[in-house]
Amino acid sequence: MGRKCFTLLLCCFLLLPLAGCWNAKELDELSIASMIAIDKTDDTYEITAQIINPAQNVEEERTDRAPVATHRVTGASVFEGLRGLTTDIPRKLYLAHIRVIVISEKIAKEDFAEVLDFFFRDHQVRTDFFVVISRDQQAKEILKVLTRVEEIPAEKVFSSITFSEENWAPTKGMQIDDIVEQLVLDGDNPVVTGIRVVGDKEIGGSREHVESIETQAVLKLQNLAAFREGKLVGWMTEDQSKGYNYIRGNVQSTLGVIPCKDGVLTFEVIRSESNIEAKVINGKPQIDVIISTEGNIAEVTCAIDLSDPHTIEKLEKEIADDIKTISMDSIARAQTDFRSDIFGFGEHIRRDDPAYWKSVKNDWNTQFEDLHVNVNVDFSIHHTGTLTESFIYEKKK
Questions:
Q1: Are strands 68-75 and 44-52 parallel, antiparallel or unpaired?
Q2: Is residue 216 within 8 Å of residue 209, measured between CB atoms?
Q3: How many CB atoms lie within 10 A of CB 268?
Q4: Beta carbons within 10 angstroms of residue 311's beta carbon
Q5: Residue 323: which residues within 8 A CB-CB, separation 6 or more?
Q6: What SS3 class is residue 170?
Q7: What does the angle CA 380 – CA 264 – CA 260 come to, to the nearest 5 degrees?
């Protein structure tokens, strides 16, 4: 009898893992948010949610409706605003599939870190989405534009950030974990990619926009915004943004253009690595940045003989100097205009000399203004293409 009771009890315990998720929700009970925009007026947050139209994204059930719809509410906090959407949408708002969060430039300058608190704290929200700053526009304007290649605009923005980061370099995909980590470190400050609507905003939100040949409005990434103490303090230029990524070792592939006689030469970077070394000498901190890059000659519109080893050697130095120039310009901008260590140099100093770091960490951004930084760049040309010189000039011989 005792053995039978034991067996029955064991079977009951074994059935428990098969009970399923106690709080599971069916798809037809959810409104899936793909992109969230946050603006602010006075002390009130304006939350705009881009909700996926499920029927429009199923091939068999397509209609003439747009693939997404936007809903807008206000609240004293981000959470109150999001919860307030229940009065506007017929289903529970589901945030686990957010791809992009757009924060207005106004909020980024005032309480950027505070706005991120909900998305970092909430257990439902995954952390693999990108955060971007709407530059010179309200964040809600970004959610009004329909896109062509990707039907869901959030997927377009997510893919653009990923592709640009891999192939262009003046942008950086920042997820919330990356931002929070840099916000809490004493010797580091985050940067965030900007975005804006270029073109006709009104037409960009119409169905006709994605059905015509000519693009009337596009969501365009706009370089990097620098932060200090959790607030936006300025924007870098395209070259400065690229220089930042060279220094931090974020460049996977990009290109550059240098002048040559009667034309220009375009080079493609296919590999780039950065090594940052910190040391304190006689009570003075110093940073050495060593950037090692490799690339190919992509385009030539000037008279130059690429079969000559001396020419190759000269080009490698010119390209290295070009990369060094934009890197140094990025550092100068951060020290002079932003007064913000966006490169994480302070963190490297902390690791090298903890005792010195303890004496300066509370005033590091001020100390950073006078930090001595050396940048050394090495560039190696791998391939010059199928031509040793431009065919335009071969004809003129």
A1: antiparallel
A2: yes
A3: 17
A4: 16
A5: 243, 246, 256, 291, 293, 377, 379
A6: coil
A7: 75
What does the mean pLDDT of the chain come to?
A: 88
**So what's the pLDDT on residue 255?**
95
Strand partners, 234: 226
Nearest by Cα to 348 from 275, 270, 273, 258:
275
The per-residue DSSP string of 205-238 comes to TSHHHHHSSS--EEEEEEEEEEEETTEEEEE--H
**Amino acid occupying residue 150:** E
Residue identified by tokens 């377009």 is 156
Q: Are 142 and 37 in contact (CB under 8 A)?
A: yes
What does DSSP say about strands 263-281 and 284-300: parallel, antiparallel, or unpaired?
A: antiparallel
Token readout for 56 is 């429009």
The burial class, CB within 10 Å (0-12 / 13-18 / 19+), for 215 is middle
CA 46 from chain centre, in angstroms, equals: 23
Strands 254-260 and 263-281: antiparallel
Which amino acid, residue 101?
I
pTM of the entire predicted model: 0.88
**CB neighbours (10 Å) of residue 210?**
17
Token pair, residue 278, equals 């910190």
What CA–CA distance (Å, rounded) separates 181 from 243? 22
pLDDT 10s digits, 110-158: 989 899 999 998 888 888 999 999 999 999 999 999 888 888 999 999 9
Q: Decide which of 214 and 342 is more confident.
A: 342
Give the pLDDT confidence score for residue 119 in this predicted structure: 92
Any idea which residue has 């109150």 for tokens? 80
